[in-house]
Amino acid sequence: MCQDCGCGLPLPTPNPGSPAHEATGPSPPHSHDHPHSHDHPHSHDHPHSHDHPHEPTVAGNAASPTPSSEAARHIPILRSLLERNERFAERNRGFFRAKRLLVLNVVSAPGSGKTELIEKTAVALRPALRVGAIVGDLATDHDAQRLRAASVPVVQIATGTLCHLEAEMVGRAADSMDLDALDLLVIENVGNLVCPASYDLGEHLRVVLLSVTEGEDKPLKYPPLFHSAQAALITKLDLADAVGFDRQLARSNLERVSHHAQRFEVSARTGAGMDAWTTYLAEQHRALRG
Question: Across-strand partners of 264?
């Protein structure tokens, strides 16, 4: 899993509070004003296969490679993976822009409330904005079934052992959807606070969630992901008192790491804070449409 996904690259430690473009991992999803030529139907005819070796074979007589030699062998492969992903991400971004489709990449730890937030967001935005979803999980389609039950068009990606979504996967999933029938596409990434930070999916906005049940210090423990987001949501607000969540401390920690991000505090279950969140999305969609 992680030894091959790119999260092990020796990148500089981020400085919480520094400008967003200096973040470790991916640069935040960025806007390229140059035109992307997508005059053809958006279809990825290439097979979805990772032709990189997951366990590089190196000729030699050493019976037991040292950790440093293993790292030296992996780094070029990991960089190649990220560069390949970046090419697919740019392709996705150009296609989404041509469709005038607002795309979110929702990232968080497992169990932070991603699916319920997407469900309630889709319902709240109707009929003004039509919302679809791409859901990534290692196994099962439980989250996708839940969204379908709420009449959200959804495609499930089962990643197997892969701990994050990649841009090529997202492009293939998007190909199978009627994007002309959507205004907003929400990508629910695999629950993981490490690896998704390194993988741009071609989204317009990266959205990171911090549930009150996780504690206030998650942004400090996992700064690359929180620093890479354009929006940060404290979720499950209805449980804050029950778990002794210190909202002011959490706000302070988010300010240190994600000072550039729009911040919201919501309970998808009770609806608290959802108006501000959905208003923000509607504004982002209007800005995209010009």
Answer: 233
Kind of pairing between the strands at 102-107 and 184-188: parallel
18 token code pair: 């520094």
Q: Residue 184 CB: number of other CB atoms within 10 A?
A: 22
Q: What is the pLDDT of residues 134-192, one digit of tens each?
A: 999 999 999 999 999 999 999 999 998 889 999 999 999 999 999 999 999 999 999 99
Q: Distance between CA 38 and CA 152 in Å, rounded?
A: 27
Residue with tokens 């690259």: 9
Quick check: helix, strand or coil at residue 248? helix
State residue 21's pLDDT score: 37
Closest-CA residue to 25 (of 42, 1, 8): 8
User: Of 159, 184, 191, which Cα lies nearest the Cα of 172?
Assistant: 159
User: Token digits for 63?
Assistant: 């019976």
> Which tokens go with 286?
């209007």
Cα 104 to the chain's mean position, in Å? 7
Distances in whole angstroms, Cα of residue 91 to Cα of each of 26, 88, 202: 16, 5, 7
Q: How long a stretch of residues is the chain?
A: 290
Count CB-CB contacts under 10 A for residue 270. 12
**Assigned token pair, 97:** 């822009």
The helix/strand/coil state of 161 is coil
Q: Which pTM was predicted?
A: 0.77
> What is the torsional sign of CA 184, 84, 140, 218?
negative
Whether residue 270 contacts residue 28, with contact meaning beta carbons closer than 8 Å, is answered with no
Total Cβ atoms within 10 A of residue 58: 11
How far is the C-alpha of 177 from the C-alpha of 81, rounded, in Å?
26
